[in-house]
Amino acid sequence: MPPSEPIDDIDPLTRMAIKYGTDKWGGHFYTPLYHELFAPLRDHPVRLLEIGTGGYDLETVGGASLAMWAEYFPNGSITGIDIAPKRLSIDPRVKLFQGSQIDQAFLGEVADERGPYDIIIDDGSHEPKHVAASFHILFPYLVDGGMYIIEDVQTTFWPQFGGSILDGGDTLKLATTVIECLNHAELAAVGQSPSFPPFANQIKSLRAYHNILVIEKGDNCEPSIGAYDFNNSYAVNAAGIIEQEMQGTPTPGGLANLIELYLLGGNLLAAKEVADRALSLWPANASTLVPAYKVASALNDASAKANYFGRILQIEPKWGGQIPSLDHLMAERADELRAMRETLTDWEVQISSLRQFIAEQNERFANLQEQLISARQENLVGSQEAAAVRQENSAIRRENAALQREYYTVFRPVLRNGLRLARRLGGSLPQPCQDVLRASFYGLVSRVAPKSALAHEYQEFRRRSVSRRPCDRDA
Ligand SMILES: C[S@@+](CC[C@H](N)C(=O)[O-])C[C@H]1O[C@@H](n2cnc3c(N)ncnc32)[C@H](O)[C@@H]1O
Which residues pair with 48 in a beta bridge? Predict the structure, then answer.
């Protein structure tokens, strides 16, 4: 059991609750909360309505909380309603009415006389159906800034009051409706518009405590961040105030936020103006570069987009979560890349020596052909000299065929292994990086032996080999 509070530490409303004998403190623990909420209003001419005078069907019993309110609000006018008739001697600022908390006409008549109210407290039947009905009837009679309080919310779970353990009962459903009203702009932003009560945009807040709900009435027209709109006065006001503050003391975060707001509201020109301003002050700050990148995207400005993208990656190499920068990847795979480069350099050396060989062989063929032509011209066919030339020709042809095999035996694996290496190296990377890696491999290979030149050379080589055949026939 917690120790007793020293009497001096008890707030004045709780003292009054104890004095008049309401269960708003002791049985429940509402009065410290009420004092917290109402203390600023104490001297105001507060109009308070309480459902449930107390005493049930005893006509001369009840009014404890009404007496408490009358003392707490010395300038207040207090109204109590109860379904049972009451004969109570009570402060003249308290007026009692007999009627049901779900009787719309009755509540309207009382409100015409005593309302609109600054505070409404439902401490009546506590049947969840009644609680919800009273709220719908009475909320419109609350002033802007007023508070609607529902006590004994526990009954929403209690079957003996018509509540439900399973679905929480009507008070809980009312709380859900109030939360939906609070967020009507958010529901509309995703295309959902349940049938809101007419006062949906007058629900300012809902506070829930043990057994008690406090619903504040007030303007609820703030825009949704999911459908920001510069036709909304809150949005215009916010942008204006942030703009003013940023003119005085700009900060990267403040300007970034302003850019985002203009983007959200679709004011791209203003967003771009602030983005340019932010980048002129902080050219290398990710918090301003990222919204500037978004502005460039929204404006389809590809070059600004690429520029900001590169600058962001220098600061945030993993930005975007998907495409790490190539530099970052290169650093991660530096060893593999170095090994690959070394292999390619080896191949480059081998290929260039083979090329040189082929060039020499081609030259020898050309010379031989010239000799054969001049031999034919000199009618030396069948002569000893022609036989010698023919012999040399077939030796070179064999040598050439072997060379050709060697050339392609070496070069084909260069391509095949190189591609395999690039795929293995790139296989675990995101697709864009694989493409970059493959392209860089092809770049290296084509520097070593451009594919088209190779094909051309190969064709040329074959053509020359075939063109040797007349010599064979000559033999
Ligand atoms: C818990 S007492 C109120 C206590 C009082 N507010 C206090 O704190 O001293 C509940 C009162 O609500 C009244 N009541 C029950 N059903 C009602 C209804 N449908 N409409 C109005 N009052 C009702 C009861 O007669 C009873 O006097």
Answer: 78, 119
